[in-house]
Amino acid sequence: MKLWQNIFLSSLLLMILAINIVSAAVLSSSHKMLLEREQTHAVNEYEFFSASFSNAVIYERLRADEVILSEEQVAEIASELFFGREKGANRAAVLSADDRKLVAGSGFDQIMELSEFGDYLDSYSPDPDTCQIRIFPVGKAHMMTVTSSMTVEGNDYIVITALDVSDIYAMRDRQRDFVRKVSIISAGIVSLILLITVIILLRPLSRLNIYTKAIAGGNYKIRIRKKGSIEFRELSGNMNIMADSIQRNAARLEKIAEDRQTFIANLAHEMKTPLTSILGFGDLLRIKKNVTDDERMEYAGVIVEETKRLRSLSGKLMELVALGGTETEMKPVALREIFRDLETAFSPQLSKNGLTLYTSCEEITVNADEELLKSLLSNLIENAVKASSEGKRIALNARHSDEGRCLISVTDEGIGMSQEAIEKVFQPFYMVDKSRSRKAGGAGLGLALCEKIASVHGAELSVTSEIGKGTTVSLLMKEADKQ
Amino acid sequence: MISILIIEDDVNIAKMIKATLSIVGYSGTCRYDGRSGAEEAMKGSYDLILLDIMLPEMNGFEVMESIKSCGTPVIFLTAMQDVADKVKGLRLGAEDYIVKPFEALELLARIDVVLRRSEKTRDTITYGDLTADIGRHIITLKGQPVQLTPKEFDVIVYFLQHQDIAVTRERLLSAVWGYEFEGESRTVDIHVQQVRRKLGLKDKLITIPKLGYRLESQDSV
User: Most buried of A220, A380, B27, B124, CB within 10 angstroms?
Assistant: First the structure.
């Protein structure tokens, strides 16, 4: 069942129940009050009747001048008394206490016929000091009887008067019907108002529902406007936070997938370029009838050159893959020693290209995998060599920086690069000058590899460059704790 | 002589294409970036342009747009296998595309198709006493027409167009019977034998062991 249906039905039931309980209590108390008032009235009437009965007996005894009146005389007086009364105005009866027979009565026939009344009369024990009050339903009417006994001329009589209290009961029934109708109508109205309120209050929920479905359907961009009660505002806010994080994660995953896609596309391209030359020249050697020695040398030369390029590409790729998988062994390494090794390793290449390498190193120890760090710096120096023309200088520096870190930098006076190129330079396969880089046997993976090594060491790699002036690549990494 | 402009940034590939073109007697001119390639295409009169897509300065699509007005047919050379790129190239008006890496003969075959479409190849080829009229599908030996089946005709025309080149059975199969044909190389052998017999090319159309056949050019004997 829906929430609004639930609220509507339960409130409707509760309302009806509450109104009925309250009205029943009010009605019964007012009914009781009315009955009490009627009781006084009935007792007064009884007393008036019994007084006039005994007065009539005394008056008759004095008139007849007798000591005591007989039973018959008393019965006659009673009959006369009733005869004189207006019939049906008041009901009263005089019964003999011995055999409970009617001596005289008026308007009492119907009551006398009631079996309940008979039982009551049988069980009644005469008591002249108290009045018993009972209510008997007679047909559709209700009669309030007042019963007591009195001794007249030596004989005991039971005197009963009855008062019609039907009006009170009829009024009670009428009021009950009225209350019932009112309760249903008012409960209906109240519930309707409640229903409308609930629907209005819950409207933000259906809005939220629509948005949630939209977000679940993949539309991560939409945000929910904060509307409605505080709870809904809070929920909307939290949903927005959730959508934010979903969008962020989705974007991140998309970026990763995209990067991977680009990487593979670039890799395929980088592999196809040398393969095209190899296949083409190989095919030429195979299908051409007459190949001169010069042509053969040229074709085979290209094949060897391009094969070497493929080999270097696969080597770099392997390094890149291996970096992601294997655990590196971090040990304290003195930078001065690494610098010395690098100088030795690069000296033939540097002298061949007519370049000079200047190194300066402060007393620094870092926690690093020695081979990886060497590979990183070699790559940077190699790039510097590629960018420099004959006679230029390359500087390799290491100095203390702030927060217990050190700054290692490789600076050249080479061709430099644009701001646009700097932004892309860490992307795999990016080459600032493709043909130049290829001539030098590059695959565009060097700096991507460097960045990976740097991230393994928790270090930061940054580039500054100016076209025609040179490039500086800096590595900011933590120094080892001094013991 | 047919002259072809090669716009390709990789020096070795450009060199390789030029060498491949030279074996069928086409002359090639190389340009290594998009801008100078486009300028050269507008300046010179070329029969065909071979255009790489990933080029410095201007990429292949941009070059294509800028040289549209000169009306020279273009074949794309691409390392990408993305269908969208191929469609883009063809929509821009390229005649064909070749995916790198490719074999020399495949390149020549594609070039021939495009040149024939623009009616720049010779319609008749003469080879000694033999004259092949490609347009009318007639071959004559010493002035007398020779009865050849259509496939046999295609085979001899292919050899005439690729004189002095060793043609593999697979290459011949895909050129004559189509790329999708999954026939046996035996089919090729039978057709070659028929052509040899009917046209008296026993000494000229020679078998190269383990590779295929070659039609010796007239002057090399």
Answer: A380
Cβ contacts of B220 on chain A, cutoff 8 Å: 289-290
Place of tokens 């020279």: B72
Choose one of A323, A354, A383: the last residue of a domain: A323
Q: What is the CATH number of the domain that holds A341?
A: 3.30.565.10
Alpha helices in A362-469 (DSSP H): 370-387, 419-424, 434-439, 446-456
Q: Could you tell me if residue A471 is inside a domain?
A: yes
Q: Which residues of chain A have pLDDT under 50?
A: none
For residue A438, list chain B residues with Cβ-Cβ distance below 8 A: 10
Res. B182: pLDDT tops 70: no
Which residue did the predictor score with more confidence, B119 or B139?
B139
Check B100 against A434: CB less than 8 A apart.
Answer: no
> Is the backbone peptide bond immediately before B101 cis, with ω within 30 degrees of 0?
yes
Same structural domain, A273 and A357: no
First to last CA, chain A: 72
CA-to-CA distance for B215 and A355, rounded, in angstroms? Answer: 56
Instruction: Look at A281 and B13 and tell me if their CB atoms are within 8 Å.
Output: no
Task: Render pLDDT for A37-76 as a digit per residue (tens, 0 to 9).
Answer: 988 988 888 888 888 888 888 888 888 888 888 888 888 8
Task: Find the residue in A nearest to B80 (Cα).
Answer: A269
User: What pLDDT is stored for residue B165 in this prediction?
Assistant: 85
- Residues B166, A287: C-beta atoms closer than 8 Å: yes
Q: Same structural domain for residues A233 and A336?
A: no
Using CB atoms within 10 A of its CB, is residue B142 exposed (0-12), middle (13-18) or buried (19+)?
A: exposed
**Rounded alpha-carbon distances, angstroms, from residue B190 to B184, B185, B186, B187, B202:** 11, 9, 6, 5, 14
Each residue's pLDDT tens digit, A325-340: 666 778 888 888 889 8
Which pLDDT belongs to residue A46? 87
Q: Which domain does A307 fall in, by range?
A: 227-323
pLDDT value for A278 = 92
User: What integer pLDDT is reported at residue A440 of this predicted model?
Assistant: 62
| Res B221: pLDDT | 44
Query: B119 pLDDT exceeds 60?
Result: yes
Between chain A and chain B, how many beta carbons pairs sit less than 8 Å apart?
A: 89
Rounded to the nearest 10 degrees, the angle between the axes of helix A166-216 and helix A3-64 is 170
Element housing A400 (H / E) = strand A393-400
B40 neighbors B49 (Cβ within 8 angstroms)? no
Task: Give the one of A281, A287, A434 whose C-beta lies nearest to B105's C-beta.
Answer: A287
Return the number of other C-beta atoms located less than 10 Å from residue B211's C-beta: 13
Question: What type of residue is A220?
Answer: Y
What CATH number is attached to the domain comprising A292? 1.10.287.130
Q: Can you give the pLDDT at residue B30?
A: 92
Are B176 and B154 in contact, with CB atoms under 8 Å apart? Answer: yes
- For the record, the structure tokens of A465 come out as 């460059």
Number of domains, chain A: 3
Q: Nearest chain B Cα to A438, which residue?
A: B10
Pick the last residue of a domain from A283, A307, A323: A323
